[in-house]
Amino acid sequence: MPRSKKGKRGVSSKGSLRQEVLQLQLSGKSTPRSGRNGVKGEAGGSDDDLASDVLSHYSSASESASVIEEGTGGGDVVDEQTAQEETEDKLKQCIDNVMDKSAKVRVSALESLRQAFSSRLLLDFLLERRLTLSDCLERCLRKGGGEEQAAAALVCSLLCVQLGGGPEGEEGFKVLRPILSTILIDDFASLSARQSCARALGMCCYVSAAEDAEDLLKSLGHLESVFSSVYPRAEGVMPAVKAGTAPLHTAALQAWALLITLCPASHLNTLINHHLPRLQVCLDSADVNFRIAVGETIALLYELGRDIDRDFEYEDSDCLCDALKSLATDGNKHRAKNDRRKQRSIFREVLQYIETEDFSEEKIRFGVEALYIDCWVRRRIYDAIKEVLESGVRHHLQWNPLLRDIFGLGAPLILDASSVKASKISRTERHLFNSAAFKARTKLRNKVRDKRADVM
Fold first, then answer.
1. What is the rounded CA–CA span in Å between residue 156 and residue 153?
2. What is the rounded CA–CA span in Å between residue 70 and residue 76?
3. Any bridge partners for residue 416, and if so which?
4. What is the pLDDT of residue 30?
5. Within the chain, which residues score under 50 in pLDDT?
6. How far is the C-alpha of 151 from the C-alpha of 109, rounded, in Å?
7. pLDDT value at position 2?
8. Is 80 helix (H, G, I), strand (E, B) or coil?
9. Residue 439's pLDDT is what?
10. Which of 39, 309, 410, 452 maximizes the CB count within 10 A of its CB?
11. How much is the pLDDT for 241?
12. What is the DSSP letter of 364?
């Protein structure tokens, strides 16, 4: 099934255009990158020590691999190779510990793998061990407790991001999808495990089953069955929602929103007509994060509808805009101040897009490149990936072929030290720029304050 045009693989965007121009400028300075991505280490010690050692080796390896230093000696190459081998050995020990009899050891090993997978690209290392690791994760999901299931589901997401959308990733998803779906729809399973499985199902399906209509529809159905439990009944009566389930409903809705970006136009029309009126009612939810997820999903559905038909209109748009305006200016004192601020910011953007089709563009810098988030589809994709990779998202944007394919960034840039140095601005230039920006911001705020004073 083909991916939709925005924010998907092979898409030409501002980010990719900027990358191509930069690559042309630096083509004369590019040099081959030395070293490989995965690293080995000594077995032994606790899993906390293993995690710390893995991250420390990755940090040093990243510094030496991202920028090629001029005049690198043979001793540095040997040191880097030794560090890689040591860290790979520690990762092997972590994989062995995932099969340990002790639940505490297994959870600690899964956490170590999570940190390693999110901080570094390990494609070569994982290709050799994907079947073993998939079997370990399946066992943790089937027999582990709630904490272990939640940790294993997150590692499943990271494994799919590492392997990419090739046959290896598809093979792993075929094995893990049934158990992820089973835990997700099990009312007696741990809420944290179900929440993690919802995110994992969305991410793994997006990465590994984009062309498989059967897996896509099954995953959409399972996710929909979770968050649609808060939809009003046929008589308009709102159902009773169990305490503590709002994060689960939020995770399921966000994963579902990620997957609908893969759907063809014929199926999207059905989804929009069915869900838009029901999501509008959910704007009254008591949970701020669920309200925000609902608002972002409404904007996403509007954008997908306009992609299909430029004259797309929602029949109850006036009532929807009134509800969005209320949330964008919400001043209820019974809600936390931070919640009100976050809610107002998001719903102002949602309302602006629905009324004027304007989107507040966001720029994500990584290395000497930048990714432009210029539509709701790209924002949902980026937010989902960032939620999985956390602080490692910029490293993966720089080196992971899957992410660069999804966002149309092209092949990774390999820069020498002089190229990187030339791309950086001096401290004086940065100071002058910040001073000018501060003055402009102060003037703008003073104008806004004057208008408020006139109104008051």
1. 5
2. 12
3. 68
4. 40
5. 1-6, 8-45, 57-73, 451-456
6. 10
7. 44
8. helix
9. 77
10. 39
11. 84
12. E
- Pairing mode, strands 369-373 and 362-366: antiparallel
Residues 6+ apart with CB under 8 A from 87: 38, 39, 40, 41, 53, 54, 57, 58, 61, 116
Provide the token pair at 274: 């069915």
Do residues 197 and 204 touch, judged by C-beta distance below 8 A?
A: no
347-374 per-residue burial string, b: 16 or more CB within 10 A, e: under 16: bbbbbbbbeeeebeeeebeebbbbbbbb
* Total Cβ atoms within 10 A of residue 34: 15
Angle, alpha carbons 205-93-179 (nearest 5°): 30
CA atoms within 13 A on the CB side of 278: 19
Give the distance, in angstroms, between the CA of residue 149 and the centroid of all CA atoms in the same chain: 20
3-state secondary structure of 372: strand
What is the token pair recorded at 147? 């904490």
Cβ(335)–Cβ(287) under 8 Å? no
Distance CA 345, CA 329 (A): 9
**E strands present in 303-440:** 362-366, 369-373, 415-416
pLDDT in tens, 111-135: 999 999 999 999 999 999 999 999 9
The pTM of this model reads: 0.77
The helix/strand/coil state of 243 is: coil
Provide the token pair at 13: 């965007």
* Residue 397 CA to its chain's centroid (Å): 11
Q: CA 120 to CA 448: how far, in whole Å?
A: 45
